[in-house]
Recover the amino acids of this structure.
């Protein structure tokens, strides 16, 4: 329960339900319960596909996932997966819903500190909560809404530092920053903004030895979450995406006890080729696509107030305005240049910043319209427009985003298990293998099947493995290459294909 | 400035983004894992069951690794023959009938959801006639006359 801060002495206790309710911070409760209710209603009912299946299986089984390791998600997810509600897939989807709702709650706390009232906050955060990708990623197991929740927490801690720049507060900021880094490496994109804000708002305090000591200690403590990865690797988890299979189908895990190997994992070197993956012309094209994505995310109406908020904040609160602009630009520029197919799911940090700007912009307008104690009718009309915009965004996006009836991933996984003959070998990409592994490792089904993610085996080793295994056991694949189609008979088998020797005349 | 004028300015700022709707459009894409499936997958492949046959033959064209559930088109030597729906596995099968077609080379191209792949077969007078294979209900396209191409071999220049 969120309790409003009052000047009541500590010995004064509420004597009635009315008094107790009077102490409840209704705005904070609404900021969390509102989006949480929306996300719960539209939540995916079971395991979802692709990264969701991988993250769910890794977290629930104490396994290891691919770069950048996500140790905080794995630890928190393991605990969360013990909740006695729904199946494990549902539970991990619910964790994303909590991440999304917490982001809205903390963003509201930030807006309050900036003097943004409840109507303006509702208008801005309502659009954030119902933005298609923010909403959708609150409905399936993913890392992004937990990342934005931690990011909102970091912004809140920056404001608390400015209010009282003492070493303890800087240490806490560094601690949360370190934990956030352990959750998602994109936290590194916030570091320049944090440094500018911390030093800019209280330079002497920030550079005092005690403050630096507190920051270093807090940061190291936060980053210590990375130790989970080498420690967990010692247990040789059944689900391990940190390593490669060879042509004999033998898995060789990366030795995470070696600092260089651990560094390779947590810095995402395996995705280095995708970073800065466009020519200047291509980057501009992608930037245009991102602009359209941002426009749609804020349902067109959040664009003008957001721009107003940028200008207003830079004018009246230079350091915060600069810090938010740096956070926005660092995230937008990095992901615009990141050459991956699902990058639209990665822009959520920029949406969070934009929502803060829109909140400030809305408040500017509301204050301006009601200036000199006049215009109550006009004020009501403007509030009505903000409310209608949020309701319209919710209604428009609901059918595009809701996953409440989406059992497709589970059905696909179960269809694969149904067609694979005893002892079969399944070779597939993300839309196939993590689902099979979830059903095997979490629900203890079909332990006789061996499933290998094709991301974890070189193409030439894959071909040699198929040639080797074809006469030993049934082999299946999910997306046959032209070479395989030349060399083998590929017969449809449910949602995948069975590989068979080509009959020679 | 009077309050109602301030309200008009405020509403203009709030609603200004709507002016761009005709150019950018509101959200319209249904969120699904299928949007991102195949991110690391194999490229689309098109296969044909025989490399050649006599005019009047039937060829079975099979597509693999296309974006699942997407509508697509089938073309022969650049001329669209018709449309096809990619199945949930990313594959589809169609038959090409060559009763009206001329002798020559035919390059068959399938395009769906941004994915595209080609294969080829040749109609040769006197070659074996390929009879229809597979399900009778399979979508069938007839090759019209006048589309045939020829393989062109350029001279190899070597310094």
């Amino acid at each position: 329960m969120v309790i409003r801060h009052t000047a009541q002495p500590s010995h004064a206790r509420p004597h009635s339900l009315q008094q107790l309710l009077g102490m409840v911070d209704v705005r904070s409760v609404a900021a969390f319960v509102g989006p949480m209710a929306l996300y719960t209603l539209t939540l995916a009912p079971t395991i979802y596909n692709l990264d969701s299946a991988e993250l769910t299986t890794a977290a629930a089984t104490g396994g290891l996932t691919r770069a950048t390791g996500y140790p905080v998600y794995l630890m928190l997810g393991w605990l969360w997966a013990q909740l006695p509600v729904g199946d494990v897939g549902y539970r991990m989807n619910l964790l994303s819903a909590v991440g999304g709702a917490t982001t809205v709650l903390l963003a509201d706390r930030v807006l309050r500190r900036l003097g943004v009232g409840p109507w303006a906050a509702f208008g801005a955060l309502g659009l954030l909560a119902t933005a298609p990708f923010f909403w959708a990623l609150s409905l399936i197991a993913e890392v992004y809404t937990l990342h934005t929740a931690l990011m909102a927490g970091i912004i809140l801690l920056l404001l608390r530092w400015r209010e009282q720049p003492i070493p303890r507060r800087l240490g806490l900021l560094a601690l949360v920053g370190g934990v956030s880094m352990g959750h998602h490496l994109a936290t590194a994109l916030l570091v320049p903004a944090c440094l500018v804000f911390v030093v800019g708002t209280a330079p002497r305090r920030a550079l005092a030895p005690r403050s630096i000591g507190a920051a270093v200690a807090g940061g190291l403590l936060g980053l210590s979450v990375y130790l989970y990865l080498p420690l967990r690797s010692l247990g040789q988890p059944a689900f391990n995406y940190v390593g490669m299979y060879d042509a004999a189908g033998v898995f060789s895990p990366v030795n995470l006890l070696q600092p260089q190997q651990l560094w390779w994992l947590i810095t995402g070197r395996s995705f280095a080729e995708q970073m800065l993956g466009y020519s200047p012309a291509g980057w501009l094209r992608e930037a245009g696509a991102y602009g359209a994505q941002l426009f749609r995310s804020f349902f067109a109406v959040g664009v003008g107030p957001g721009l107003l908020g940028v200008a207003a904040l830079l004018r009246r609160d230079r350091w915060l305005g600069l810090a938010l602009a740096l956070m926005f630009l660092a995230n937008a520029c990095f992901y615009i240049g990141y050459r991956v197919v699902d990058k639209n799911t990665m822009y959520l940090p920029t949406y969070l910043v934009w929502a803060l700007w829109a909140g400030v912009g809305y408040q500017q307008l509301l204050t301006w319209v009601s200036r000199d104690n006049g215009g109550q009718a006009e004020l009501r009309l403007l509030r009505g427009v903000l409310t209608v915009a949020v309701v319209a965004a919710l209604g428009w996006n609901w059918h595009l985003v809701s996953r409440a009836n989406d059992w497709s991933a589970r059905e696909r996984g179960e269809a694969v298990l149904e067609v694979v003959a005893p002892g079969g070998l399944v070779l597939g990409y993300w839309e196939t293998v993590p689902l099979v592994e979830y059903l095997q490792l979490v629900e203890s089904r079909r332990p006789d099947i061996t499933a290998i993610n094709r991301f974890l085996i070189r193409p030439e080793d894959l071909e040699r493995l198929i040639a080797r295994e074809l006469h030993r056991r049934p082999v299946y694949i999910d997306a046959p290459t032209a070479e395989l189609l030349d060399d083998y008979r590929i017969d449809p088998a449910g949602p995948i294909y069975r590989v068979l020797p080509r009959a020679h005349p | 400035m009077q309050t109602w004028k301030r309200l008009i300015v405020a509403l203009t700022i709030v609603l200004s983004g709507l002016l761009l709707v005709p150019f950018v459009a509101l959200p319209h894409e249904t969120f699904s894992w299928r949007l991102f499936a195949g991110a690391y997958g194999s490229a689309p492949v098109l296969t044909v069951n025989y490399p050649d046959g006599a005019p009047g033959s039937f060829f079975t064209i099979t597509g693999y690794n296309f974006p699942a559930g997407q509508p697509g088109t089938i073309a022969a030597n650049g001329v669209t023959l018709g449309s096809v729906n990619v199945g949930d596995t990313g594959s589809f099968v169609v038959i090409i009938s060559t009763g009206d077609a001329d002798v020559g080379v035919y390059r068959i191209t399938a395009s769906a959801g941004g994915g595209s792949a080609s294969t080829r077969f040749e109609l040769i007078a006197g070659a074996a006639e390929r009879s229809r294979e597979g399900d009778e209900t399979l979508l069938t396209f007839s090759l019209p006359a006048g589309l045939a191409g020829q393989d062109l071999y350029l001279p190899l220049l070597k310094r």
In short: Chain B has a mean pLDDT of 90.
